[in-house]
Amino acid sequence: MDPIAASNMLYMDCDEDLIEMYGPMKLQNARLILIPLNDNNNPQRQNGGSHWALMIFMRDSETDEISYQYIDSAGGSGLTERFSNLEQFL
């Protein structure tokens, strides 16, 4: 997933807008999604943040269960809480 798309999803409040913008990506059909996360807390600030982490969503092809892995060189900088908006697309 493009970092800008991931960032937009994290900051958008309106579920209808999220579905309209990102529904066509058909993320619910994907088996593997790589989502870059940035610690920028201000969506108005371009090039903000100083740390990146990676969220990996994997869907089991037999059971359709979703699991995820969070990779963060800072050892858990708190970015996991920011992906809750993304779960509705999976």
From TrEMBL:
Molecular-function annotations in GO: peptidase activity
One GO biological process term is:
proteolysis
Looking up InterPro entries in the UniProt record yields: Papain-like_cys_pep_sf (IPR038765)
UniProt entry keywords in alphabetical sequence: Hydrolase, Protease
Q: Which domain of life is it from?
A: Eukaryota
Protein name, entry field: Sentrin-specific protease 8
